[in-house]
């Protein structure tokens, strides 16, 4: 008898590790992680302001004053245990919210760095392509005759034509001076 290696998975039987066993999500309950992240960032931003620090300082001074002055009943006498408990509770909630906000900022920074890296890579590829194209254009232009090259050749030909021939005669007047134009067919040299 062969035992199948793969068995179908049922929700809640323990084989699915992405969901708690036996618990189905409520049909109407939804958790929006992005909204909660924005909320935590707003709290973290507020906790880091001077307004919060001044407000908390005024609150603590007012609390201490009310609990030390004899005008009202002292609900939190000198060691201020209740105030300490309130600060501990505030810190217990503030720290994870601040960490969540920092994690979201790290994710945004990581995505921004990745976009910058991709842009730098594309820019580098474009620069390399343009450098290759420029090199190809330079190589193609190396074989092209320029006006300066033509002027230099004409000057050398004029010097050769004005120089005396080895038999002592000048080449001028034999169709090689600069004043005559090219001869037609059948009109050879003298």
Instruction: Please trace the helix and strand order, writing H or E for each element.
Output: HHHH
Number of strands: 0
Q: Can you count the helices? A: 4
Largest sheet: none
Terminal Cα span: 113 Å
Helix/strand/pairing category: mainly alpha
Rg (CA only): 46 Å
Describe this structure in words.
The structure is a single chain. This protein has 190 residues and is mainly alpha-helical. The chain has a domain at 33-129. It is 59% helix and 0% strand. The chain is built from four helices and no strands. α1 crosses α3 (81-142). The longest helix has 62 residues, at 81-142. The radius of gyration is 46 Å and the shape is rod-shaped. It starts with 32 loop residues before the first helix and ends in a 28-residue tail after the last helix. Mean pLDDT is 79; it is low at 6-11, 176-184 and 186-190.
Concise account of the structure shown:
By secondary structure, this protein is mainly α.
Sequence-ordered SSE layout with sheet pairings:
Blueprint: H1 33-47, H2 50-68, H3 81-142, H4 147-162
Helix pairs in contact: 1-3
Descriptive key words:
0% strand; 59% helix; single chain; 190 residues; rod-shaped
């Amino acid at each position: 008898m062969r035992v199948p290696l793969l068995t179908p998975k049922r929700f809640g039987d323990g084989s699915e590790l992405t969901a708690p066993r036996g618990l189905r999500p409520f049909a109407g309950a939804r958790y929006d992680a992005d909204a909660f992240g924005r909320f935590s960032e707003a709290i973290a931003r507020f906790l880091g302001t001077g307004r919060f620090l001044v407000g908390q300082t005024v609150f603590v001074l007012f609390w201490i004053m009310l609990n030390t002055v004899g005008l009202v009943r002292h609900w939190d006498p000198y060691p201020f245990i209740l105030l300490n408990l309130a600060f501990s509770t505030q810190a217990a909630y503030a720290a994870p919210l601040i960490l969540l906000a920092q994690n979201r900022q790290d994710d945004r920074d990581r995505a921004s760095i990745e976009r910058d890296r991709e842009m730098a890579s594309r820019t580098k590829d474009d620069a390399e392509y343009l450098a290759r194209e420029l090199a190809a254009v330079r190589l193609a232009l190396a074989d092209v005759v320029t006006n300066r090259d033509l002027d230099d050749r004409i000057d050398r030909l004029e010097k050769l034509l004005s120089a005396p021939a080895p038999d002592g005669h000048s080449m001028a007047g034999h169709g090689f001076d600069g004043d005559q134009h090219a001869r037609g067919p059948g009109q050879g040299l003298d």
